[in-house]
Amino acid sequence: MEAVVSLNSGSSSIKFALFTLGPDGPQHAAVGKLEGIGTAPHLVARDANEVILVDRGWDNGAALTHEALLHDLFAWAGDHLPDHDIVAAGHRVVHGGTEFFRPLCVDDALLAALDALCPLAPLHQPHNLAAIRAIRTLAPELPQVACFDTGFHHELPEVSTRFGLPRALHDKGIRRYGFHGLSYEYIARALREADPVLASGRVIAAHLGNGASLCAMRDGLSMDTAMGFTALDGLLMGTRCGTIDPGAVLHLQTQEGMTAPAVEALLYKQSGLLGVSGISSDMRALHMSDDPHAAEAIELFAWRAAREASALILSLGGIDGIVFTAGIGENDSVIRSAICERLAWLGIAIDAQANTRNAPVISMADSEIIVRVIPTDEERMIAIHTLAALVPAGDAS
């Protein structure tokens, strides 16, 4: 049976999913995560029925590279999924710049061009490309497709793309791009199936996880987004600061004596929930903590999300609904409630019981704004894009 594999490679983890191909489009066959890369690698994979297929750790595996672990992953798939013939691999690539927004088959020229964009997404892009290179080594004949997180936002209104900088810099690509596009594209599709009327209206989608952003959508298209030039912008995140006065960055360098790499590490890896709480970047750990700094970090996360959502309402000229997604958005009823309470002026009324059980609709019947929870599936979106890049338009679902 033919299948495609979707990979989302990060600095310390690789999320993956295997999809079989059929007349109804790609169907989940297995999904998993290789985490702890660089420290204590651990692989867990489940089939479509949530049955664990493998749960394996590597003793003394701190020195194992992405390539070595991908080799083991492919070897495991060959031994335990013998009926699946992998015909292509699709990859999440965080930044496509101004030039790349449609899914593209990877060749040497594209790989070199994407390498040049690494400074725009230093936390993600190098690892996305490392996975592509690893598979090129392991299976040089296997077609690979790059799917861009910035692609969904490619048609943003011009006013939504500009900074107040000289035009020459904008023309060089220093502009707002937006991210989490694969997630938002999936949400737009899923919402159209679940609630076509709302999908055709004005919706703010909230992708809330370790990385977090918002997207203002009208009729399923991106009109504005909280992230800008890099995935550092916008909301408070697990270890990223979100929007910050650029003067503060200058102050860190000119008055605190920090080098550019030190500032980069501070803003990307030492800030956000971790920096404010001094405890953890994991929202679950903060909920369990009695430390007042944990409570402060949680409050700041919700406040920033509500503040950015309020700004995006301007870009939409109003709002008809909110969709929560990703790890925190799908599972954390406390955060959803805290955000919606700050947006109560819109006429939002939350059903506490529905919210607690993570129901598909968590707003009351008489709420002026519909509030939904939709699990995202970036890996499925990658599979759909991968098929679209390999076959004539219209042949893939």
Distance between the termini: 17 Å
CATH class of the largest domain: Alpha Beta
User: What is the number of strand segments?
Assistant: 13
Number of domains: 2
Principal-axes geometry comes out as globular
- SSE topology string: EEEEEHEEHHEHHHHEEEHHHHHEHHHEH
Average residue-wise pLDDT:
90
> What is the count of helical runs?
16
Q: How much of the sequence is in beta strands?
A: 15-25%
Determine the CATH superfamily of the largest domain: ATPase, nucleotide binding domain
What is the helical fraction, as a range of percent? 25-40%
CATH topology of the largest domain: Nucleotidyltransferase, domain 5
Biggest sheet: strands, sense, closure? 8 strands, mixed
Gyration radius, in Å = 21 Å
CATH-level-2 architecture of the largest domain:
2-Layer Sandwich
Widest β-sheet, arrangement of strands? 5-4-3-2-1-6-8-7
Q: Point out poorly predicted stretches.
A: 393-397
- By secondary-structure content and strand pairing, the structural class works out as alpha/beta
Q: Can you give a write-up of this model?
A:
- A hairpin with a 6-residue loop joins strand 2 (13-20) and strand 3.
- The protein contains 16 helices and 13 strands.
- Helices cover 39% and strands 20% of the residues.
- The chain is α/β, with parallel strands linked by helices.
- The strands form 2 sheets. It has an 8-stranded mixed beta sheet, with helices on both faces.
- The chain has helices at residues 66-80, 108-115, 125-138, 158-161, 167-171, 181-194, 196-199, 246-254, 260-269, 272-277, 283-288, 292-316, 326-331, 333-342, 352-356, 378-390; strands at residues 2-9, 13-20, 27-35, 42-47, 52-57, 85-93, 104-105, 144-148, 202-208, 212-218, 221-225, 321-325, 370-373.
- Helix 12 crosses helix 14.
- It folds into 2 domains: 2-148, ATPase, nucleotide binding domain (Nucleotidyltransferase, domain 5, 2-Layer Sandwich); 196-373, 2-Layer Sandwich (Nucleotidyltransferase, domain 5).
